[in-house]
Amino acid sequence: MPGLDTGNTGFMLLCTSLVMLMTPGLAFFYGGLVGRKNVLAIMIQSFVSMGWTTVIWFAFGYSLCFSGGAGGIIGNLDKAFLNGVSLSSPAAGNTSIPEIVFVAYQMMFAIITPALITGAFTNRITFKAYMIFLTAWLILVYFPFVHMVWGGGLLQHWGVLDFAGGIVVHNIAGIAALASVLRGARAPRTPAEKA
After folding, report:
1. pTM of the prediction?
2. pLDDT given at position 190
3. In whole angstroms, what is the distance from residue 82 CA to residue 101 CA?
4. How far is residue 134's CA from residue 61's CA, in Å, rounded to a whole number?
């Protein structure tokens, strides 16, 4: 594999593994913060994000984030189902690592970002509602922000730099969590809850 560096690739695989371990860690952290009756629900939400986000990411998420749409809001489907991505194809931003390693590394952030939001709506939504939220939020919020900041989109063309995920991960997850808390505070209560 010409041009690929084993040291850089090994380091990125280590980083990918460490980010992957943050999601179960987050599940246990949130599980320790909630009441006994909500522990399983909050932990399952993090683990479900690992499974379902992986499916969405490989199907079209990576493509929407990192292909086409130069200077725009969202990418295209040129790399849907990892079309053209092989073990020997170099990553666009760093040609010393395979693109498949970059795909896996970015996927770990796509997994943990919606999981960060779950602590804000513990015991307030059903599992079905969470699955709908997870899917819609990834497609409508996370993927566009990744493309705009890291994938050659609008904000990157404006000169925005985000090396550690402060904008793409923490800011948008925090704003989504705040929005869910504010919406929950204004939601009409049932007569039984008012009493």
Report:
1. 0.90
2. 62
3. 12
4. 13
